[in-house]
Specification:
46% of the residues lie in helices and 16% in strands. With 223 residues, it is α/β, with parallel strands linked by helices. It has a domain of 153 residues: P-loop containing nucleotide triphosphate hydrolases (Rossmann fold, 3-Layer(aba) Sandwich). It has a 5-stranded parallel beta sheet with strand order 2-3-1-4-8, sandwiched between helices. A 3-stranded antiparallel beta sheet has the order 6-5-7. Strand 5 and strand 6 form a beta hairpin. The model has no long low-confidence stretch (mean pLDDT 94). The structure holds BIS(adenosine)-5'-pentaphosphate (AP5). BIS(adenosine)-5'-pentaphosphate binds next to helix 1, helix 2, helix 3, helix 6 and strand 6.
Length: 223
């Protein structure tokens, strides 16, 4: 088994299914799931000073400035449970963040092992995000049509209350997609040039995406 740390990036537009597939990927990779959106939402929930600095960006569907985002994620990656790597979800999201991450990993003699880019057409994304429900307690992700909970409004895993994210309103969703195409999609070429990008068809069933991811992952300790 390889002992090199496994830093894997989940790339894709809002609603592509990054959060949905993360639990499964975390299992096969054996590394923590580090999602920048979840880290931000934790600050908002706990009403921290940092949360007050970033709340207006998130509510508008804009990206939080690179310096604040990068500092937050790097602090998380410095924690002991990330010493063997991490599954990065939602970060990096700009070329500036991607370069900062590469430089920080290189300083420790590490590099990104693989970038899994989940591809889904925009019109499907709008429908997915407007039907999304998230557990307040454990963060599990559902969809009212494609992946409903057994009991309305309650999480299958922990019984927690399911809610709709403020930034999943249709107007904000469309703006987030525009931001994705302008600021995040250039990362596709950036990682293609590094030879680490793999494209995954996200426009199929959750199980279908999972199977494609399983076949695509090469840094799970096997190779
Ligand atoms: P973040 O929380 O990262 O949101 P996002 O990237 O917009 O991604 P989502 O969580 O919306 O989508 P997802 O791909 O995880 O989809 P999911 O699995 O839930 O960011 C929120 C905000 O924080 C940003 O707008 C920004 O302000 C800020 N931020 C975060 N990171 C930042 C950064 N690096 N820099 C600056 N700012 C940052 O699935 C969606 C729905 O579809 C669910 O209901 C699910 O059940 C359903 N679904 C999933 N897969 C399928 C399928 N195959 N078929 C049918 N339905 C499916």
């Amino acid at each position: 088994m390889s002992s090199a740390p496994k830093f894997v990036v989940l790339l894709g537009p809002p609603g592509a299914g990054k959060g949905t597939q993360a639990a499964f990927l975390r299992e096969i990779l054996g590394v923590p799931h580090v999602a920048s959106g979840d880290l931000f939402r934790e600050h908002l929930l706990n009403k921290t000073k940092f949360g007050r600095q970033v709340v207006s960006y998130i509510e508008r569907g804009e990206l939080v400035p690179d310096d604040l985002t990068t500092a937050m994620v790097m602090e998380r990656l410095a924690q002991p449970d990330c010493q063997h790597g991490a599954l990065l979800d939602g970060f990096p999201r700009t070329l500036g963040q991607a370069v900062a991450l590469d430089e920080a990993l290189a300083k420790q003699g590490h590099r990104i092992c693989q970038v899994l880019n989940i591809v889904v057409p925009d019109e499907v994304l709008v429908e997915r995000l407007s039907g999304r429900r998230v557990c307040r307690k454990c963060g599990a992700v559902y969809h009212i049509v494609h992946n409903p909970p057994h009991q309305d409004g309650a999480c299958d895993r922990c019984g927690g209350e399911l809610y709709q994210r403020d930034d999943d309103r249709p107007g904000t969703v469309r703006y987030r997609l525009k931001v994705y195409w302008e600021q995040t999609s250039p990362l596709i070429d950036y990682y293609k040039k590094q030879g680490v990008l793999v494209e995954i068809n996200g426009n199929q069933s959750i199980e279908g995406v999972q199977a494609e991811l399983k076949a695509a992952v090469t840094c799970d300790g096997r190779g």
